[in-house]
Amino acid sequence: MKVNLGPVTRLEGHLNVHTTVENNTIIDARCVGEMFRGFEVFLRGRHPLDAQQITQRICGVCPYAHAIASSYAQESIYRPNIPPNGRILHNLIQGANHLYDYLLHFYQLAALDFVDVTAISNYSGTDTDLVALKGWVSSELSSNKPFPAAPFLPRLSGKYIDDTELNIGALKNYIESLELQKKANRASAIFGGKFPHATAIFPGGCSQDATIDHIATYQSLIGEVRNFIHQKYIPDLVAVASAFPEYWEIGQSKGGFMSYGLLPFGPELDSARLFAPGVLENGQVSAVDFNAITEDVRYSHYSSRSGLRVRKGELQPAPDKQTSYSWIKAPRYNNKVVEVGATARVLVDYQQGNNSKIKQLVDHFAGQVGITADKLNSVLGRHLCRAISAVVIADFLMEETERINHGGPTMAEYQIPSSGEGFGATEASRGALLHYIRIEDHKIAKYECVVPTTWNCSPKDDNDRNGPMESALIGTYVETPQEQIEANRIVRSFDPCLACAVH
Description:
With 503 residues, the protein is α+β, with helices and mostly antiparallel strands. The protein has one domain: Cytochrome-c3 Hydrogenase, chain B, CATH 1.10.645.10. Helix content is 39%, strand content 16%. The chain has 14 helices and 17 strands. It has helices at residues 39-42, 51-54, 63-78, 84-110, 128-141, 164-192, 212-243, 342-352, 356-369, 379-401, 452-456, 468-473, 485-493, 498-501, and strands spanning 2-4, 15-22, 25-33, 201-202, 205-206, 256-259, 262-264, 273-275, 278-281, 284-286, 293-296, 308-309, 330-333, 338-339, 419-428, 431-440, 443-450. It has a 4-stranded mixed beta sheet, with helices on one face. The chain has a 3-stranded antiparallel beta sheet with strand order 1-2-3. A hairpin with a 2-residue loop joins strand 4 (201-202) and strand 5. Helix 4 (84-110) runs antiparallel to helix 10 (379-401) and helix 8 crosses helix 10.
């Protein structure tokens, strides 16, 4: 039986997943990026300082990560003397954006795969938001509409949390999380200028001043977000994990893991980072080599050459190509499949012992839910790793604000050379993000982006090996093949962003 899951809802962009099911088991899966954009084409010939602005438009959820990666790439050419404040403000902007994205993903995108919204019908309290939600859901359920209004209904058939109090509490936090996301975005905008698409991020720092008023407001907002993470987000995640322990065994990708590292401690590009970079294969971590990254296009809608390294990348759309099924390319590292994202970020750091807090949190929560660290390669593992990332980043941001030199410079001065090339790498909330720029005659001659969802949602490569998400789906038992709530839970655990993947 062939079943198309698209359009897959509660994610960014246009994703379809073609599955083949036999005996209630997925035996084949194809991730289909259904659109083409071409950012790398229209960046050519632009002024280099346009890059960190234009590439932010790749995504409205994680624009700051693109601005930061572009800035890093340009810094590797300009070699500016970056003031410490400049890098700190980069971190404050990007870190707050991560916190927003983790809350958005868990509550608005993924939680409704597990939380039973119909439990609100049993609510007897006086909370204004919950009373309004109860009235709305009850009205929709009794309306006999073929397609009740989003976001709560309709929903896939399957098991949901059966504890009424847990469901109602999660729904209350769903609503409250919207306000906390606004606070995280306000914090980013204090130094970024606005959200989305910051105007203040530049190579070498930030154009916003680091005033005491700005710092105090930022601390207040992030403090509220941090409290919500500890008091609401973490308990809700543990409740989901307790209700669905089988999802520690479901959704494993078949390959290695890669992280570029996140939030540098100093202004230099090679500074140590809060999350360490590395490639994890067979229990061993090695340094990341950007020259080892290639992109296959045998099954992608492009007629450009396959297996090209990033600096040689090409973009020649071929919508009628007979062998292809996706607009996403298939990146490979040393010709191997790797998953990127929160699980990669945590496992790569955990394996190296870089950040003692990450190791403590992994061991603590693994013990609490009765798993070992290797089970983080799973649906619940990806959710837990986002929560661990949120705790570590929120604490770091509060500490980082104390390191600001009040009133000190926040921007470097530099001259843009007539030619040069450089890589810029960071971690978007969804994983490893790489930008490459080549400048000729003071203009952008070539620009390439390899983004997290291009890795995770990649089609098969030239050797017919499935990408991480496809491999995580294959072998999964589905109770109802026509709906596949199990497959949807796997897909959303990757938090795919197709707008980024088909940039």
